[in-house]
Amino acid sequence: MSIEVLDESGRAIQVRDLVALSRFVLDKMRVHPLAELCVKLVDEPTITELNVTWMDGSGPTDVLAFPMDELRPGLVNEEPEEGILGDIMVCPDVAARQAEEAGHSLEAELELLTTHGILHLLGYDHAVPEEHKEMFGLQDTLLAEWRSSASSATD
């Protein structure tokens, strides 16, 4: 699996941790082992420009997902499709404010946003209540499993 995390945010982010999380999420979602993912950490002016240009948004946002080959989660006993998953743009400056408001660390917020972005690349959305419940439930489950596996690895 090719996972590239590029830090262009101007902050000191543990890129290796985001690579490990991304690999964990992609494995759990049964994405083809040769799939490609790029996570780019960007500053506020960059995420604002992307949000305005591509999403018809206004101002900065926390995460944007740009799917490429429209890969979907693999099914049990079925070979997943190979291809380029896409790009996720995450803004650590926005994430830091959200983390403070939520009362958790920047690292936890970046984990949440990376997982959220990957799920968007895999076709999940949260525009209607049923989709929201499914996507956020899956996101919570993946993060709980990740944190459990990460804490047992350090014990």
Which sequence of strands runs across the widest sheet?
A: 1-2-4-3
- Gap between N and C termini: 27 Å
Helix content: 40-55%
- CATH homology superfamily: Metalloproteases ("zincins"), catalytic domain
* Known CATH architecture: 3-Layer(aba) Sandwich
- Rough shape? globular
Number of H- or I-type helical stretches: 5
Question: Could you explain the architecture of this structure?
Answer:
The protein is of the alpha/beta class. The protein has one domain (about 1-155): Collagenase (Catalytic Domain). Helix content is about 50%, strand content about 15%. The protein has helices at about 15-30, 45-55, 90-100, 105-120, 130-155; strands at about 1-5, 35-40, 65, 85-90. It has a four-stranded mixed sheet with strand order 1-2-4-3, sandwiched between helices. The model has no long low-confidence stretch (mean pLDDT about 95).
Which features does this protein show?
alpha/beta; Collagenase (Catalytic Domain)
Question: TL;DR of this structure?
Answer:
This protein is 51% helix and 15% strand. It contains five helices and four strands; from the N terminus they run βαβαββααα.
Write the layout of secondary structure elements.
Layout: E1 2-7, H1 15-28, E2 36-41, H2 44-55, E3 63-67, E4 84-90, H3 92-102, H4 106-121, H5 129-154
Parallel strand pairs: 1-2, 2-4
Antiparallel strand pairs: 3-4
Helix pairs in contact: 1-4, 3-4, 4-5
